[in-house]
Amino acid sequence: MSIPVILDGDPGHDDAIAWVLAFAAKGLDVRGVTTVGGNSSLANTTYNARRILTLLGATDIPLAQGATRPLVVEPMIAPSVHGESGLDGPALPEPEMDVQPGGAVELMARLLRETAEPIWLVPTGALTNVAILLLAHPELKPKIAGISLMGGGIQSGNWTPAAEFNILVDPQAAQIVFESGLPLRMAGLDVTEKACFLPQDFDRVRAIGGQLAEIVADWLEFFFEFHREIGYEGAPVHDPVAIVALTNPEILQTRDLYVQIETAGQYACGATIGDWYGSAGQPPNTQVAMGIDRQAYVDLIVEAVAEHTRRLAS
Ligand code: BDR
Ligand code: CA
Fold first, then answer.
1. How far is the CA of 214 from the centre of ligand 1 (A)?
2. Across all residues in the chain, what is the average pLDDT?
């Protein structure tokens, strides 16, 4: 039985690789894709999403554009990480698909209404669309199996000392999601900073041959070069870990924690505060990934590219 999912992201190099993994995974059934601004403007992330789905031959999957801005705070983008387009690097095919009318929340609501079995949401950007969905359609919560997200970090941030980028882009949305009572799996920096790709890993991707392998290897190399310049030894490929939390949880080490979102604060806005010692006296609301079998992670992504390459050739 495959797990139904809706992918929601801001592609973004690692979002793109997460989607490569999701569409290759035999255990997942991708019902729809939605976009949010973050790594670049909403217009750019939506354009990138259309190009990625075209590249993967997934033009029959409904795709919708998300919220134009975060709930409360001003929009923020990250051209220093992903380039001006949000997905700088290799040339991509022009989109052979359009977006659905009505937008992300309407698409998510329709897919949830129509489904017989609950669907997992997999956000790999700011949580704006998911928060609006929960506010606008509380009656659909029983149709949501859970939320497997990339965001946050119990031990540290990356955009500020305390906050990880996706949570910082829309802290109020994150608060709504973490207080939703839905099953949450959090792939934050605690695990994704260990989910690193090294040159020998993207060489393996390139060696598969063909257009997709070249593009994914170039994305990985682009990400690696950025991170090397700021002192990393490898590129933390964050977003696919949120997919792995559903398809291959056995390669993760997790800890159940009560997690709260700081929405104000002088230094810590956007922080994911994990109650490591149970001081808040609350039951855990989040399964937080803390460790990963890095080699198994690399193998999964290499195999996903090989699987797409076989499919596209047949
Ligand atoms: C997250 O921020 C974005 O730059 C990445 O796509 C990832 O989702 C990592 O902090
Ligand atoms: Ca992302």
1. 22
2. 97
